[in-house]
Structure formats: C-alpha cells, structure tokens
Amino acid sequence: MSLLKTTALLPNPCSTTALSSLQCGTLLQSLSNSKSLTQAQQLHALVTTGGTLRHNTYLATKLATCYAACGHMLHAQLIFDQIVLKNSFLWNSMIRGYACNHSPTKSLVLYREMLRFGQKPDNFTYPFVLKACGDLLFRGIGRKVHALVVVGGLEENVYVGNSILSMYFKFGDVAAAQVVFDKMPMRDLTSWNTMVSGCVKNGETVGAFEIFGEMRRVGVVGDGTTLLALLSACGDVMDLKMGKEIHGYVVRNGGNGRVHNGFLVNSVIDMYCNCESISCARKLFEGLIVKDIVSWNSLISGYEKRGDAFEVLELFGRMVEGSAVPDEVTVISVLGACNQISALRLGTSVHSYVVKRGYGVNVAVGTALIGMYANCGSLICACCVFDEMPEKNLAVWTVMVTGFGIHGRGREAVSIFYEMLGTNVTPDEGIFTAVLSACSHSGLVEEGKEIFYKITRVYNVDPGPTHYSCLVDLLGRAGYLDEAYAVIESMKLEPNEDVWTALLSACRLHRNVKLAEISAQKLFELNPNGASGYVCLSNIYAAERRWKDVENVRALVKKSRLKKAPSYSFVELNKMFHQFFVGDTYHKQSDDIYAKLKDLSEQLKKAGYKPDTTSVLYDVEEEIKEKMLWDHSERLALAFALINTAPGTTIRITKNLRVCGDCHTVIKMISKLTDREIIMRDISRFHRFRDGLCSCGGYW
DNA sequence: AGCTGCCGTG
C-alpha cells in the first residue's frame, strides 16, 4: 500500500477534523505487515500532530507494535516508555521485537520487568523468551523458564513446545529436546522440522534421518524446510546416495514446482559440493533457468572449498560479465581463492570493489580481506584493514594473530593476543592455536609455554590435540626435544598424528634418530597410509647416511603404494600464473630458466656456497645430488621471475610444500647477489629474503 | 501477534 494513496483518503492532520483512533489503528495494523519504517514514521507524525498519541493508549500500543514489527526498537521503546497502562499485547510485541532483532538480552530484561509489573506471561510471550535464552546460551535461565511454562500449564501449546525444542537444540542438549518432543500432545510440521534441523545442527545426522523416517510413517508430509535440513545432513556426512534421493524428491515435490527458481535447488548445489561431487553441482547449476545470487555463491564457494581457485576466478568473471551482482558472500569466497594462490593483485582489486560497494562494514568480509592480504604476503595491508575495522570479533583477532604468525612476527602476534584479552571478546581454542603457532614460528618458547598453561588455568579451556602439537612444535623447533617428548607422555588425551608429526619434524631438524624412530612408529600405527611420516623418517636416515634404512623405508612406501604429493611452486606475472614442478621442462622459457640457474649456481659457488644435500633422498653420487637440488620447483620459479621482471622488483613465490633447507640458503644468497627482495610463501609460513638474510631467522 | 528456515570469515 502506498502512503500517498492512504493519506489522500485521510483528513489533513492540520485541519480541525481529528483522525479517529480506530482509523489510525486499522491503518497501522495493515502497515505493520509491510514492515516499512518510513510509512510507520510518517503515520507517527500524522497522529502526533493531531495530538492524539499521548492520551491514547490504544493508538500508542498499535504504533509501538508497528515499530517493533519493523524491527525499529528504538522508536518502539520511546513510545513504550510513555504508555502508562501496558497490556500483555504490548509487552509481548516488545519482547518479540528485541528477541527477533538481535537484542536477546534486552528481550529478557523486558520479560523480567513484565513479571515485576505483575503482567502474566502467556503463550505469546514464552516463544520469544525461550528464543532469547537459546540465542544467549543461557542454559540455567532457559531451564527455569521451561519450568515456569510447565507451572503455567502452557507446555501443551504447540508454539511454546516448539520453542522449547529449539532452545534445547541451541544448547546442544539433543536428549532434553527429544524428551520434550516425545511428551508433546500435539505436533505440527514445525515441531518435526525443528527436530530434524536441530539434530542436523548438532551433528546427529542418523537421528535426523530417523525422525524423518518416523515423520513419513505417521503420514506427515515434509516441506522445503525439512528438505533443507536433510540436504545439509547429506553434505555433513557426504552421503551422496541419500543426497541424490533427496534431489529427486525435490524435483518431484519440493518447492511447489518452483524447483528451478526456488532456494531449494541452491541447497542441492551446496549438498553436491559438500559431497565432493562438484560435477553434479556444476551440471545442476548450468541447467538452471534462473541463477540467483545464492546459486552463484553456492557453486563458487564449492570450488573455493576444494581449492579450485582458478575455477572460482573464472566463475567470478562470468558472473561480473553477466547480470548478477556479486555480494558479500561472493567476495568472501573470491578472496579465499586469491588467498590460496597468493593472487595479491587480484585480491587488491577485489578490495577496491568491496570499498566501492560498501561491503567493508561486514565483519566476515573484513576477516577475509585480512586473511587474503596476510596470506598474499602483504602484512601491512592486512594491518590497515584490521585497524580500520570498527567491530572486531573473535575471527578478526584470530586471523590477525595468524597473519603475524606466518610472517614470523611472533612478538606482535602475542601482543595483539593480549590486547584482545583486554576487550570483552572471549578466547576460544582457535585463537590459542593461532598464538601458539605464532610463538613456535618465532622461537618464543617462554611466551608460548606461559600461554599454553594459561589455557586451562585462566580460561578454563581444555587444551586439545592441536594445542599439544603446537607446544611440541614450539619446544621441538627450539631444540628441547626431551621436554617435548615429556609433554606428549604427560598428555591426558591420546596424542594424534599432528602431535607425533611435530616431534618427528623437530627430530629431523635436530638430528635425533632415536626419538624420530619412536614418533615415526607411533605415526605409522595411527595412520599406515600417511606418506609424510615415511618421507620424514627417510630424510632423517639420509642425513645420517644410513642408506640401508633409507632403502627399507622407501621399500615400505613402495609396498603400500604411498605417493608423496608432487611439489610445485608458482609466480604471478601480469595476472598470469606460472606453475613449475620439480625438474619441469614444459615451460616455454625452460631453456632460459635452466641457463639462468646454471649461471646463478656458478656465481654462488664463487661466493662460497656449499650445497647441503641431506634432503636428497637418493643414494647417488654427490654431484648428481647437487644437480637434483637445482631442479627444485622454487628455484625454477625464482629463475623465471628473475628473467621476466625489472631489476629491483619484489619477487613473490608460492610453494605447496615446505621450502627445503638448501633452497633456503640459495635463495638467501640470490637475494643479495641480485639485490632483490624475495618473498616466499611455503605451506606453513612466509620467508622474506633480503640482502642475504631471511625473516624466519632459521625457524620454519 | 507467534515457533523451524539456502551461499560466507579464523
């Protein structure tokens, strides 16, 4: 309804004819469905000019309710405060308004005030009070409200019952929800849907399918919401078979025949992505008559999650060319893709787009930007975005701590970690992992240990396997191998693969064969198919020149058909990506690259370079080993970059694995020899080579 | 006057 039309029908408020309460009330009633603030405000102006509001509880109540329904709680509260005689209708509207507009605390405050005023809560009050308790994870208060519901005899109301279910699911208390559900005298579709989606959200996938089965047995027909939850469940457990069945069900019944433009199809795309069937997702997507923003985002995020960055960028390009306008969600996935392939230039242009469209206020977008800049080697830009963020949640702090960590700036990581503790953000396992890992990359043993022991004592968080692996890594890298081993032995929980891997790689670094054999043994027991443990152990034997043992390990690898992931490096040049594998001769500049490397190796030798061949796995002549080192992918990428960029430009290389020890030495020397800054990102951190030195200071 | 609800950040 347009306001212009409406007001034309009404008497002029400035005229002597006053607007009747009933007229305004009906008008507001219809407006409350339109959820338009401007209409409500104009009407508000209309009635107040008439001088009717102050003394008209009926109208004021209607207006407050209208504002609350629009989600404009500030206006609603102003009017609410003026009303002397508050009826239950008004209280309920306000409690609902706050609960549904991200102010659950205010909702509960008002509920308490309502009780103090002697107003009895009813079946319209409790659903929102319960919602607020659930959102705030107020378990104690939630249970008390549940008790009051029982006392008030409202437990049998289906709306109240459904809200109780939902609240217990938010608490993660599936059993309590089940008990309530079993006792419900009447269940509607929402009750069933709440059960199904509640189970899914709590990881009870089997339970969700059981409820669905029961639902069908008693003849309840599911709707889009049911299917949505089930599709999400299929994705969680990667049950492609069930997913396809539900897809069929969606095609036959779902969305009232709106399958090709309804949102359900997007969830099917998402399901296929989560079931690692990207081709099914793609096929469905391409066949869509109407591709909305969520369709695009579902597929793009699917490619991003599986690490197909180039596919993400291609789809993004297609999207921009077409009519779809990328939104915050799109941008987050695209930034994630830039992050994966260190596409700094592209990431920066996405940042401009973010600014242009005003997406920067979104916390998730800011987080993605910081992550992109940090992972593309531009810590300064990451810091700028971080500093400018008006609202910093846990994810923001975590990504910034991680960013400092991978750049070897442990002190800054620790410092902002403590800065975060000074705010009202509560730390979780994730940020402890980030700060501990930052400590280990910088050799901050004491700081790291202190934080580790604070996890339990001060923050009541139980350290998980990841924290232990960080601590072992921290101690191990710094050479405290026995202490690291003692930590593992003291663990209350079973040490996992990561813990032993951390000890094993520390053993390689400090050449401790005895502990290496222990950790490798544990690693093989935990995962006989993991290749990295075998590779690491054979490296350790090779360093000790125990070729027989190397051979034995390699035989084991062969027998179990384990394959090490092929190592590669790449560089971005004029928005093109050039990828190099070990000993790669496919690049069209291949001859020039090898010539450049030969030239560099000679110059390095004159400067006193002695190759460290311990990382070469094969028992061959020393000379051949040296030659093999010069085939490493990071050197090919570096030579290529040196040939194709102007003197003095910074070179950025990305490698999918850890940089090898000899390459590290060589790149240090080349940075001095060619007077270049070389920024190299490997699997776990950044190395900034300048003037013969590296920012990692030997910790990597 | 209500309860359940697609794609996204560490």
From TrEMBL:
MF-aspect GO terms: RNA binding; zinc ion binding
PPR repeats: 87-121, 188-222, 292-326, 393-427
Taxonomic superkingdom: Eukaryota
One Pfam family, short name: PPR_2
Gene Ontology biological-process entries: RNA modification
The entry's keywords: Repeat
Domain DYW, residue spans: 608-700
InterPro entries xrefs: DYW_dom, E_motif, PPR_At4g14850-like_plant, PPR_rpt, TPR-like_helical_dom_sf
Similarity field: Belongs to the PPR family. PCMP-H subfamily.
UniProt protein name: DYW domain-containing protein
Organism encoding this protein: Phaseolus coccineus (Scarlet runner bean)
Organism taxonomic ancestry: Eukaryota, Viridiplantae, Streptophyta, Embryophyta, Tracheophyta
